[in-house]
Each structure stands twice: as structure tokens, then as C-alpha cells.
């Protein structure tokens, strides 16, 4: 971030701290209309998330475009992310990939992304290994090439935070011993074209609509950490998590199997492999048999990326995040 952008953030923080949200919005609006890329980017985020202003995703995309035209790096990334995932209303993954290809000519960061995109495009879709017919549980070996597994871990690393659960009474996010890992979401502006391509590949092998997937969620477990017995279905939602897709991102650890104790099934993590299982019966009701756990890791670190796939297209603004 430039000094001017840091100053802007500090100034906004001060105004918000004093309860002067209207002044903060006025400042951002004036500066972005004057062509200040940092202000355009910030106001774009506020428009996207509805912070202090009415949520307006297409106005957000326009603001990111204006800032990106001035080579504001985060705005360039946000524009590419939103074109790929359609969360600002316009979906144009080919335009997003064309932006990456153009940037790759002069920017090593995007050259690497371009290289990874070519690798995933060239990797054949692996066949399913059926672990259970009913409930439906499948494993796909070599779903994700190693360099892409590395990219997911590196891209998530900076945002990892202790995992939480939603307290059913307070509805607040709280830490809980059921889940001692660290986690990170690839939110609407974090989903680079590689993550977008992975999400679409998960949709392709599962035969689901790519828009039905939640944001890809990375979990990192260190020794002793685990995800105790749970079910991925959610209480009181109309658009249920029909499927769970888990990509195992690394090797070099002991323990950490994904266990389905009611089925006597233990899945050993294999780097690049994808585990897919049904959380619901055909009629949409929760299938309790797919309760599962991430067993404690004994040595090393275990990394996974999970995509919970709903019955119908889903957006992060449809409901409060559940976990
Ligand atoms: O880490 C694992 O093996 C399980 C992860 C899991 O249950 C989930 O992400 O829903
Ligand atoms: Fe789970």
C-alpha cells in the first residue's frame, strides 16, 4: 500500500471511530470522483459489502475498474476476481483470463498465474473411485496438480485465522473445541483466476452448478489439531449444503485422516486428491450417515481446501456466514 493509501485508511478509521460514517463516505466519494485510485478501491469495497453505504455490486465493479485503469494492484485483482465469480453481477471468466494473459507479458506475478492456469487446463478430469454407493462418497486421485495445491496454500496463508463456529444462541462467531484448526476463505475479491478455475473444476467433476459452491475455504491443522465429529449440513436453511468437496493440498504429515465412523470408512489424505460426499438424501433432507471428522494430526501440518456445494446457486449475501 502507498503512503497516500495508508493515510487515507488512517483518516477513514479515525472518522469511523468517531461515529462520523457520513463524513467518511463523503471523503471517499469526493476523492474517488477526483480520480484517486486508493479511494476508488476503498469505496468499491464499501459498495460491494454495503459498509456505511447501500450495497451496490455493479457500482463496486465500476469503481474497481476505474482504479484498475490506474494500475492499482488490489483493484486489478478485485476486478479479475469479480469477473470470474460473477459476485458483482457481471460474469465473464474469459475476460478475467484475458486480463491475466495481458498482465503476464510484463508482470511475473501474473506470469506465474498464467502458467498455473495452463497447467490446470491441461490436466485431464480424473475418474471417480467409488468409496460408498449409498451414501454417495467418491475420491478423485490427481484432481489438482501439485503446483496448484501450493498456490492455494500460499494464497491462503496470509489470511489464516483461528477457525470458529456460530454460537446457536448468540449467533456470534466463537472459537470452539470442535474445530481447533486455522482457516481462511477465498472471499468475493480474493478469488483469483486459479481459485476460480479450481472451483469450476470441482463443479465439473461433481456435475454441479459452479454458482452453487460456497467460497473455497482452506484449513490448516498443526499437531494435535482436529475437526471433531460433525455434519456439514446447516440448520434452518432453504438452500442446503448438498455436497462437500475436500481437496487435500499437501503431504508430509501423520494422522489427519477424514473418518466416517458411522460407515466404518477412513479416508487417508493424498496430496492433490479430492474427496466428495453427499450431505443430503435425494429429497434434500440431511443424511446423518455422512457425519465425519478430521482426525488429529500427529506430526507435520495438514492442509485442505473445502468447497461446500449448495442445492441451488448461492451468494455470500444470501445469509449470514455459517462457519
Ligand atoms: O480435514 C478434514 O479431514 C475434514 C474437513 C471437514 O470436515 C470440512 O472441511 O468440512
Ligand atoms: Fe466437514
Task: Provide a concise account of the structure shown.
With 323 residues, the chain is α+β, with helices and mostly antiparallel strands.
Q: How are the SSEs placed, and which strands pair?
A:
Blueprint: H1 3-17, H2 21-33, H3 37-49, H4 57-69, H5 73-85, H6 93-104, H7 108-122, E1 129-132, E2 137-140, H8 146-157, E3 161-162, E4 165-166, E5 173-174, E6 182-185, H9 193-206, E7 217-221, E8 227-230, E9 241-248, E10 254-255, E11 258-260, E12 265-267, E13 274-278, E14 292-294, E15 297-299, E16 302-310
Antiparallel strand pairs: 1-2, 2-13, 3-6, 4-5, 6-7, 7-16, 8-14, 9-13, 9-16, 10-15, 11-12, 11-14
Helix pairs in contact: 1-2, 2-3, 3-4, 4-5, 5-6, 6-7, 7-9
N- to C-terminal separation? 30 Å
**Number of E strands:** 16
Indicate the CATH topology of the largest domain: Jelly Rolls
List the bound ligands.
2-oxoglutaric acid, fe (ii) ion
Helix content: 25-40%
Choose one word for the global shape. globular
The strand line-up of the biggest sheet is: 1-2-13-9-16-7-6-3
> Any low-confidence stretches, pLDDT <50, length ≥5?
none
Rg: 21 Å
Key terms:
323 residues; alpha+beta; Serine Threonine Protein Phosphatase 5, Tetratricopeptide repeat; Jelly Rolls; 8-stranded antiparallel β-sheet; 4-stranded antiparallel β-sheet; 9 helices; binds 2-oxoglutaric acid; binds fe (ii) ion
